[in-house]
Design brief:
Layout: E1 2-4, E2 7-9, H1 17-26, H2 33-36, H3 41-46, E3 53-58, E4 85-87, E5 94-96, H4 100-103, E6 110-115, H5 124-131, H6 144-152, E7 161-164, E8 170-171, E9 174-175, E10 191-195, E11 201-202, H7 220-227, H8 230-234, H9 239-254, H10 256-260, H11 269-275, H12 279-292, E12 297-301, H13 323-348, E13 355-360, E14 364-365, E15 377-378, E16 382-388, E17 396-397, H14 414-424, H15 429-435
Parallel strand pairs: 3-12, 3-13, 6-17, 7-10, 7-12
Antiparallel strand pairs: 1-2, 4-5, 6-16, 8-9, 10-11, 13-16, 14-15
Helix pairs in contact: 12-13
């Protein structure tokens, strides 16, 4: 027997329908408060946080800094990007012609050009990018979002940490180890949600509840009818995994306000078109809706997979071959359109003052063009974009050398990125010490 609140129920081998439904109704909005720790809205609002929501845009696969936001037009030909250079709204700052919308909005964000990291490959660099630490030694450190989820708790509507991709972010068959809670536990893993280019959302957690679409559940009676078949599915899962997954999924399908966040069809055709008819574009629109719902941490992934040209995969930024062709024809047009629509929307809707927007990959790409006329992995130098949460926009922080190989100003590590995000989200040094996270981390004071 297992105790859940005041109700006793059997394990997966024999859960009773009455106990099952009693348990479901006893969970406040069904989202595992005993696991997350309850924090009501008044408590959350009292936290010393400049950012009520953090939106981390992860350019998985690593875009080339020389072909986007840190061009070197005077470098030797074997380094120089073939794309033209255009001015931005920031005096003296230039981008390549591949990101014209981003260039015209440089007064809305701060650009950092002096990042470096310790990991040279996928997915180990992804773990460093999302946690600040390498995979080994174990245990794996938590994702930045998991840290904020634990600190904030659950405010009663939606899980505190979402990852937008069609599953766990991966490199081929291997996942990023720090995609979730790590040493804090699986309870702080992100709630996964996917999105198609046609504005259809999917919740992998609801695979457990076969045939249940959260947008079609109109009342509790209909929900109970559809739950009749759930116990049969439980035999396929461990009770612990089912308990956490079901509680979260139940909350989303039982609360109309929670379900509403995932219905992109509520947006006008013009708004959906502004973001672009792409997986990333519509995912960015979903991210904006989650920000409006005041989810504490949203990780918006450009793609689930790192691969740039492998058939059957979404296209990531890992452009070892066809770098220039892919950037010109696919990656940059999709990113430039969707990210700038997101940026505009956050400002136009008055969300930016209390939202921290961070955009970056896990490293840069080789300044020297490889024998395949492309660029490989380059951990020593890459860029990021920061906006909102009271940060002064229109600035450039940090500088790379004449070939874009190394920072010539103070380099910023992923651990510093995570520490700065945590600080702006109200997870101060004392809170970090109590959780034993981001040890040794330093805030990027130049941003503040």
């Amino acid at each position: 027997m297992l105790n859940i609140g005041n109700f006793k129920t059997q394990t997966c081998n024999g859960i009773g329908r009455r106990s099952f439904l009693q348990m479901s109704g006893a969970i406040p909005l069904g989202l595992g408060l005993s696991n997350y720790g309850y924090a009501d809205e008044d408590t959350v609002s009292s936290l010393a946080a400049r950012a009520k929501s953090v939106l981390f845009v992860f350019l998985w696969g690593a875009p080339s800094h020389l072909d986007t936001c840190d061009p070197k037009p005077d470098a030797p030909s074997e380094y120089r990007s073939p794309f033209g250079v255009i001015p931005t709204k920031t005096p003296g700052v230039h981008f390549t012609e591949l990101v014209p919308r981003l260039a015209q909005r440089s007064d809305k964000y701060t650009l950092v050009r002096s990042h470096h990291t310790s990991a040279p490959g996928h997915p180990d660099a992804g773990t460093v990018a999302l946690s600040g630490f390498e995979e080994n030694p174990k245990p794996v450190k938590p994702n930045f979002g998991s840290i904020i989820a634990k600190h904030r708790g659950f405010n009663g509507k939606l899980p505190p940490f979402f990852s937008i991709a069609n599953g766990v972010v991966m490199d081929g068959g291997r996942k990023i180890e720090a995609y979730g809670g790590g040493q804090l536990g699986a309870v702080y893993d992100p709630f996964m949600v996917g999105c198609s280019e046609t504005s259809q959302t999917s919740l992998p957690a609801l695979d457990l509840l076969d045939g249940i679409n959260p947008l079609r559940i109109n009342d509790r009676f209909e929900l109970m009818k559809q739950l009749d078949g759930v116990p049969r599915a439980l035999d396929k899962l461990s009770f612990q995994d089912w308990n956490r997954t079901f509680q979260q999924a139940y909350g989303l399908i039982a609360d109309p306000r929670a379900r509403q966040a995932f219905n992109l069809m509520e947006e006008s055709e013009k708004t959906r078109a502004n973001y672009g008819q792409s997986v990333f574009g519509q995912s960015a629109l979903l991210a904006r809706r989650l920000v409006e719902a005041r989810v504490p941490y949203i990780q918006l992934n450009y793609s689930r997979h790192v691969e740039a040209i492998t058939p059957g995969f979404e296209f990531g930024w890992d452009t070892h071959v066809y770098n220039f062709e892919l950037l010109q024809d696919q990656h940059c047009p999709i990113f430039d359109r969707a990210f700038c629509a997101l940026l505009d929307d956050l400002y136009d809707r008055g969300l930016m003052d209390e939202t921290l927007l961070v955009c970056m990959g896990e490293f840069g790409r080789t300044p020297k063009i490889n024998p395949r006329a492309s660029r490989d992995h380059w951990p020593p130098c890459y860029f990021s974009i920061w906006a909102g949460a009271g940060l002064e926009p229109g600035r450039v922080i940090g500088e790379s050398d004449k070939r874009g190989e190394h920072p010539i100003t103070r380099p910023f590590s992923p651990l510093m990125v995570g520490t700065t995000i945590a600080e702006l989200a109200g997870v101060d040094s004392q809170a970090r010490a109590e959780m034993r996270v981001l040890e040794g981390g330093e805030v990027i004071h130049e941003l503040l």
